[in-house]
Each structure stands twice: as C-alpha cells, then as structure tokens.
Specification:
Helix content is 92%, strand content 0%. The chain is mainly alpha-helical. It has a domain of 56 residues. The protein is rod-shaped and about 130 Å long.
Length: 104
C-alpha cells in the first residue's frame, strides 16, 4: 500500500509537458477572430461614410429645390400682382367708356 501511495504522489507531482502547438493554434485563431472583427468594423465605417455622403447629397438637393421653390413663388407673386394691376386698369377703362357712352 505504501508503494501505491508513493506512485500516486509521483503522478500528482509529475511535471506536465508543455506543448507549443496548441498555444500557437489558439493564438492564430484569436488573431483571425480579431482581424475579422476589425475588417467588419472597417466595412461598417465605409458603409457609414457612404450613407453620410448620400445624406449630404440629398440635403444639398433639398436646399436647391427649396431655393428654386422660393424663386418660383416670388415669380408667381410678381405675375399675380401684374395681373391684378392689369385687371384694375381694365376696370377703370371700362368705367371710363361707360361714363363716356352715358354722356352721349
């Protein structure tokens, strides 16, 4: 029994052999995962920049359309005022003609 105990103790105290191969594989796997994550972040950043550029272009287009709309509204107002002035002169002329016809 004493021999068995010594044998068990020797097995428990026996130094483990250190293998580099599993550590290397784990390192390569970890590096691959990290690089994959970084490339995914780079793709996300590129996609974000693309979306931001699209938004900026659409904002510029909206501003340009707003300027065109304001310009067209100003033209419409000027034309309506001109039509109103012409209609007023026409009424005045018609009234003058009616007065002249009434006098004769």
């Amino acid at each position: 029994m004493r021999g068995k105990a010594i044998n068990t103790i020797q097995q428990a105290v026996k130094p483990r052999t250190f293998s580099v191969r599993p550590l290397f594989y784990a390192s390569v796997l970890s590096a691959g995962v990290l690089l994959c994550a970084f490339s995914a972040h780079a793709d996300d950043r590129d996609q974000l920049k693309s979306i931001q550029a699209d938004i900026a272009a659409k904002e510029r287009a909206v501003r340009q359309q707003q300027q065109q709309r304001a310009s067209l509204l100003a033209q419409l107002k000027a034309q309506e005022e001109a039509i109103s002035a012409a209609a007023r002169k026409l009424r005045e002329t018609q009234n003058t003609l009616e007065q002249l016809n009434a006098q004769n």
